[in-house]
Task: structure prediction
Amino acid sequence: MGVYKIGPMKGRHRFVLQVCAALALIASAFAVKVGDPAPGFTVVDSNGKQQHLSDYKGKFVVLEWHNQGCPYTRKHYESGNMQRLQKEWTAKGVAWLTVISSAPGTQGFVTPSQENDYLKTMKATPTAVLMDPGGSLGHLYAAKTTPHMFIVDPNGTLIYNGAIDDHPTSDQADIANSRNYVSMALQQAMDGKPVSEAATRPYGCSVKYKD
Amino acid sequence: MSATAQPAAQHARAELLARQASVKPGSDLQLGVHFILEKGWHIYWINPGDSGQPPSFEWQLPPGFTAGEIQWPRPERMQSSAELADYGYHDDALLMVPIHAPQVINNEQLRGLRFAVEARWLVCREVCIPEQAGLELFLPSGTIKENSAAAKLFAEAEKQLPMPIPQGWKIRVESRKDDFLLTVANGKPITKAIFFPLDPGQIDNPAPQKLQSSTSGATLTLKKSDLLVKPITLLRGVLVMPGKAPYRIEAPVRQPIQ
Result:
């Protein structure tokens, strides 16, 4: 899978974007499987900086699909669970990329400055937030829900695709009794062990794609 | 009947109904939570598909009574994008639960026996909202009698419950690299059918289910889910064909010949 660009572009780059959109549609037909190379991307983050997956070669990368209005996302942010995970794993060298694929006019769509305000209010510290209002990155990974979690290993291989934990509810009280699949997979992979639960059913709200 | 319906939040109203007007010791009683949904909103099946969450019930029953599992009517398929398809109900749905009465009924109050349920559900349109309601009804003990007002609703819901496949039908499931082939042989051509998987993460929910009709039935091609990393031994679900009862499918999966 080649690298392709997503984000605001002008002039002849528009053509590139259209080709990329077509690629994304094709890509979604194949989607991403655990064990396969994670598809590369370039997306602009909430600070206007281009983020390439390849920038993080040699590191573990977590992708977290996000929608701040979704009750299942709120479960993990209002409890502080997601922030704890971000803090714990970025401190261990993991790149944590939050992705927002809500289309303009749908729940969870935010401008970059609104997102930065949200991060401050929630005390959330992902490595970066990727702004994907066109949904190309979401389609590339076939992201289905918020949250939906992916983990890429330092070689660029997808090692986890699925839910954040084993309690598919919107109730904060369930977090204490949950097995967190993301932490389990990261810990096992860092210990050089195979990931025991590498693909689970993600749970939450549907990703609010424009189409 | 002395049922009380409590209006819940805005998008779904729920009421607790009884098929019977009284409870006979040692017999089975049918209760149901009836959801009346705002137009355009839906709730979910036991396998919600790619997003969502099925309703859950927590019962408070008179001493000695026990509640069985929710009897799920066949769902509808709701596709919101190329990646996403969910399974659930629009407009209204009755989720029935069998309740077993003990041989000896104690604790009957003046108002009758109290049956209560804390119902929690997720209701979605473009956005999703968790809702809940505490529902209750009172029934006297006595000889068994249908509650005529509710019985019709229960009878309608019963027609939507998956049935065992008829005698003589043959179901075969073959696993291939990227899909399952579900073959139904009922002795007649089948021109339209849809399969709802009971277990999540086995088939790709939004993928079109290609139907190949034959003189003796049909074969449906079910694309495997990206999340399916281990072979499965059993395919379970509901097969729906127009004009027929929904059928329960539980078929062993033949693995590909290596």
Residues 28 and 129 of chain A are 22 Å apart (CA to CA). Helices of chain A lie at 13-30, 71-78, 81-91, 112-122, 136-141, 181-190. Chain A has six helices and nine strands. The interface with chain B takes residues 25, 28, 31-34, 69-72, 106-107, 138-139, 142-145, 161-162, 168-171, 198-201, 203-209, 211 of chain A (CB under 8 Å).
